[in-house]
């Protein structure tokens, strides 16, 4: 199943494409989500997608750029969808988490996340890119939600806290149930591109089978300025986006079930909210 599912005339309001936004400004990332399964049957799909890139020090800029912050809106961002989930400020929360893990990342923190669309949001994964004062990436927090209302954080960082370069591979043990067609075992391999004009997050899942990943998933796109005009364009191009995320998850699950892919019952969630 490919494409946005919108009629052709709904795709005629383009996002404005001047030069890439400043690195310290909130922006849009428009691109695609891709998923490929290698076994026991091949299964893949690609969907058009977008997300917000929000430097947490600039959260206060969102309303003037067309995205209400902690208020209702057609496209909006709410602090309670992330971090402690109680509506409290996000930057102190991530600072405390990094300090508890001994990671020196006192610079900007950029959150890549789906917004709410028409008041609704389901966010399978959001990424917190945590930098030091010199701008180097020291950690990435992958904030994962499943369709059972559970969540878990994977904190990806070098053991010694060194800088993470674009294209490096970092591993994390799988401890959280996401898909009933994957057992909770094996590990993830994370790779990111942190360039100023493009974003890429790739997550390969390795079970205990062959050396190739069982699943290869990526979120990628180009950076675009966040503006009221571009937000209005999002409403035309992606107006059912977050509802569509849930619908597509269940549609792909039905396809895997019809292909007789083995089914795994959901285990209890991990005791810790964050693993590294």
Quick recap of the structure?
This protein is an alpha+beta fold. It has helices spanning 90-100, 228-237, 241-258, and strands at 27-37, 43-55, 75-76, 109-113, 116-117, 125-131, 137-145, 151-156, 169-173, 187-193, 198-206, 215-225, 274-275. The model is unreliable at 1-22 (pLDDT under 50).
Notes on the protein architecture:
- The chain has one domain (24-275).
- The protein is globular, with a radius of gyration of 18 Å.
- The protein has 276 residues and is an alpha+beta fold.
- The chain is built from 3 helices and 13 strands.
- An 11-stranded mixed sheet has the order 9-10-11-12-1-2-4-6-7-8-13. A two-stranded antiparallel ribbon has the order 3-5.
- Residues 1-22 have low confidence and may be disordered.
List the helices and strands and how they pair.
Blueprint: E1 27-37, E2 43-55, E3 75-76, H1 90-100, E4 109-113, E5 116-117, E6 125-131, E7 137-145, E8 151-156, E9 169-173, E10 187-193, E11 198-206, E12 215-225, H2 228-237, H3 241-258, E13 274-275
Parallel strand pairs: 8-13
Antiparallel strand pairs: 1-2, 1-12, 2-4, 3-5, 4-6, 6-7, 7-8, 9-10, 10-11, 11-12
